[in-house]
Amino acid sequence: MTKFPMTVQGARALEDELKVLKAERPKISQAIAEARELGDLKENAEYHAAREQQGLAEARIRDIEAKLSNAHIIDVTSIPRSGKVIFGVTVDIANVDTDESVTYQIVGDDEADIKQGKLSVSSPIARALVGKEEGDVVTVKTPSGVVEYEIVEVRHV
Length: 157
Fold this sequence. Notes:
- The longest helix has 29 residues, at 8-36.
- This protein has helices at residues 8-36, 45-69, 124-129, and strands at 4-7, 71-74, 90-95, 101-107, 118-120, 137-142, 145-155.
- 38% of the residues lie in helices and 26% in strands.
- The mean pLDDT is 91.
- A hairpin with a 5-residue loop joins strand 3 and strand 4.
- It has two domains: 4-74, Helix Hairpins, CATH 1.10.287.180; 78-155, Transcription elongation factor, GreA/GreB, C-terminal domain (Chitinase A, domain 3), CATH 3.10.50.30.
- The strands form two sheets. Strands 5-4-3-7-6 form a five-stranded mixed beta sheet.
- The chain is of the alpha/beta class.
- Residues 5-73 form the Transcription elongation factor GreA/GreB N-terminal domain.
């Protein structure tokens, strides 16, 4: 079975979501029971809505449990700082041509959210950065062409 990398924060977020979903189970069951009492199940919209909500919640619970069981949780703060880009680090990079700076944390695929600066480890930029060190210049092929970035700083936060 393949293990997938995940940050401590990503695992914590999934565990929190799992707790919320499991806490909602009794409410969903109650909604189904109340809707069932209304009579004819064929034309009972409340019943069908509650059953659909139950199905979605149970599917998400199974999905989260599978992700957590296959996760290799990496705490980057416990890894000695080397200046090298690895999974979980926060990296400041600067576009060589425009001098525009951007900060990304390299995270697992399920944690990625570009708006929050969380970059999937399998993205083209992350693949170019991993294994490189502060001061290195990396070339990234993007849809708009080739872009060069300099690695300004690597932080274990």
